[in-house]
C-alpha cells in the first residue's frame, strides 16, 4: 500500500518575482539537440550605415547575446502552448492595436 503512487496537484511560482532582474531582447534564435532546445535571446540595435554595408557584403549582423536558455525537450510543448495562449490573450486585450505581422528579422 505504501508503494502506490499518489497524484499531487500543485502550482509552481517564482520564489521572488519582485527581485528578479528583467533582460530585454528583441530577437530569439532557436536550436536543438536530441535532448534539449536552446533559446538564444539577443538585443538587435538599429544599424548604422556602416553596419548595413557590412551586412550587405557578409550577410551577417552580429548582436550581443543577452541570455541563453537551455530547456529539455519535454518542456517545449507546454512552452509553445503557453506562448500561444498568451498571444491569444494579448490579441484580445489589444484588439485596436496594430496586429502582429510575424518576425522582424
- Physical arrangement of strands within the biggest beta sheet: 1-2-3
- Tally of DSSP β-strands: 3
What proportion strand?
15-25%
Uncertain ranges: none
Structural class: alpha+beta
Element order: H for helix, E for strand: EEHEH
Tally of DSSP helical segments: 2
- What share of residues is helical? 25-40%
Q: Biggest sheet: strands, sense, closure?
A: 3 strands, antiparallel
Using only C-alpha atoms, the radius of gyration works out to 20 Å
Envelope shape: extended
Mean pLDDT: 86
Distance between the termini: 57 Å
Report what the structure shows.
This protein is an alpha+beta fold and 105 residues long. It has a domain at 27-93. The protein has two helices and three strands; from the N terminus they run E-E-H-E-H. The protein has helices spanning 49-58, 76-93, and strands spanning 27-32, 36-42, 65-72. It has a three-stranded antiparallel sheet, with no helix packed on it. Strand 1 and strand 2 (36-42) form a beta hairpin. It is extended. The protein starts with 26 loop residues before the first strand and ends in a 12-residue tail after the last helix.
